[in-house]
Amino acid sequence: MKEAIKKKKNKRFGAEHWVVIAWLLAFYDAISVSVSYFFALWMRFDCKYSQIPENYLNNWMKFTPIYILIALAVFAYLRLYKSLWRFASYSELVRTAAACFVTANLHVIGISLIFGNMPVSYYIVGGIVQFCLVISIRFAYRMVLLLRKRQKTEGAVTQNVMLIGAGAAGRMILRDINRSQELNDKVKCIIDDNSNKWNRYIDGTPIVGGRESILENVERYKIQKIYIALPSASAEDKRDILNICKETGCELKNLPGMYQLVGGEVTVSSLKDVSIEDLLGREPIKVDMNEVYSFIHGKTVLVTGGGGSIGSELCRQVAKHHPKRLIIFDIYENNAYSIQLELREKHPELDLVTLIGSVRDSRKMFQVFDYYRPDVVYHAAAHKHVPLMEDSPCEAIKNNAIGTYKTAYAAMLHGCKRFVLISTDKAVNPTNIMGASKRLCEMIIQSFDAKIKEGKADEIPQLFTHEIKNERKKLDVVKNRELFKNIKTEFVALRFGNVLGSNGSVIPIFKKQIEKGGPVTVTHPDIIRYFMTIPEAVSLVLLAGTYAKGGEIFVLDMGSPVKIDTLARNLIRLSGFKPDIDIKIEYTGLRPGEKLYEEKLMAEEGLKKTENEKIHIGCPIPFDTNEFLAQLDNLMEAAYSNRKDIRDLVAALVSTYHQEGVEVVSTETYKELMDEALASDEEDN
């Protein structure tokens, strides 16, 4: 109750203050409109009161009270008493001019018709003086604030800013800086590639040239910050400009996209730190999401690993397009709880189920599929960190390979229509146990799909979890052989490279190291990787689930590979430091199982085109499905027994797995990729 009374009192006092200001302005306007026309009359007769004819003076005196009422009514109608004049701008200027124009004309008509004609100069000079008096008081407050800010800025340490982009977004950023009382930034110059704008000014700030003059003007104006306001520029243009800016050592801020310009949200606070993603220099992969979401609409969707980087983004995208039910399944309750809270806040109408459990647990997976009957499964649950899995190889097999098998088997028996496996380019010619385990996942998916197409789904063996111990009875649901006759589940895998910004990825690690002052650790100066963004990865996952025919391995064209060393150096520069001077780079050596480069496809695999030119389908390498499935039970037993020879057993199943690490890399292939990466570096520089 006390809080409500206090709030009401504050509101009343606020209103009283506003009313006082409005009345004071009205009183001032009443004096201004009357004095302005008397001044015009006085000027007309040589500034001598005694020479003013009595009839003119009487006309003015009789019409003035009427005119004051007319003027105040017009001013009130045009909201001249409701504006915040400390933020007065073009809109307020136009409304004030319109009010003065309308009242001046009403003055001419009114006094002429009622009391008689007045000298022409009386009308003209009176209208001009009235406008000057009315506008001056309203903009004087803003002028005082600007002068105070200038004095404060002159006494404080200012940051000289270069603004790139003289379009609508650039103008909004410039005015936001000029109005702000909190910022000590001062825009010294503007860069724009449109030569028609050069040597001209925006709010007193010169447009000094195009991108080729950035370095010159940074030195000339002693710039410390560069603000980039190019929301509609292509990725290639942004990359070229950023490559120039990163050589300046200035702090960089970037306006992310057009949506902020359209939404009117372009302010200094809209700017974000320039991220390394901006330097990849390719347009985002675009997918026809309408078809994707029409596939999801009205279906029950299960996302395993739903709390992870890819899994959580999958949940966000699926939730937007009206699934019948969305099931988040994850073993880590904190991540699952976080995405659950987010989705419930954004989509209160969504039928959302969050389950905690492990994909290794057969009985749990059967229970989930039996109760919820998901139509589509996106299987993102996996151990993914290469060095950790090298130290715990059996865990990689248990969670990645066996977990995928159990989830896929439960999906198959319970009428799931699509099963989409999230794979990785590390599954190609793997030199580490994590990559080999993901290749096993792909082979499992291919085997399931092959058996279903042959009409022999009942030949797929049931694997038993360690919790069942040595019990050899099959689960009750498996006893019914009729279940296998109409199985039509379509299994598909998709393969992509490193995901920017995902948990544990290289960029967040580099950023933390830079924040601490270094050093930034890179395993090898020549290591190269393919990169993609989380939204691109999720688009591919959804597309695979839509277009799957069964047995495919979808592959994303991620452009040219990028040197990790180059990424590290660019990120240091974008943070305003100099590599090897301000922030040291240390080379720690390749970790166990790590390759200098990752391939997207094995040499034996070919590529088929899809409707999207950036997405291809890899033709699976044939292998003996029966022999492979028969050996999985032994592999599972070995993994749960934590046998030390687990790598040898994996190598027997995955013929492309090489435990020797980087020695498997062919000189020719690596040289080609290095040349491609170096060419990209030269283009950037």
Overall helicity:
40-55%
As laid out across the biggest beta sheet, the strand order is 10-9-8-11-12-13-18-22-21
Helix vs. strand class: alpha/beta
Low-confidence runs (pLDDT<50, min 5 residues)? 1-15, 257-270, 465-474, 661-667
Radius of gyration: 36 Å
The overall strand count is 22
Q: What is the distance, rounded to the nearest whole angstrom, between the alpha carbons of the first and last residues?
A: 65 Å
- So how many helices? 22
The fraction of residues in strands falls at 5-15%
| Bulk shape | elongated
What does the largest sheet look like? 9 strands, mixed
| Overall average residue pLDDT | 80
Keywords:
22 strands, seven-stranded mixed beta sheet, 22 helices, alpha/beta, single chain, nine-stranded mixed beta sheet, about 15% strand, about 675 residues
Structure description:
The chain is an alpha/beta fold and 685 residues long. 49% of the residues lie in helices and 13% in strands. The strands form 5 sheets. It has a 9-stranded mixed β-sheet with strand order 10-9-8-11-12-13-18-22-21, sandwiched between helices. Strand 21 (607-609) and strand 22 form a beta hairpin. Helix 12 (362-372) runs parallel beside helix 14, helix 14 (393-413) crosses helix 20 and helix 15 (433-453) packs across helix 21 (646-653). The longest helix has 43 residues, at 2-44.
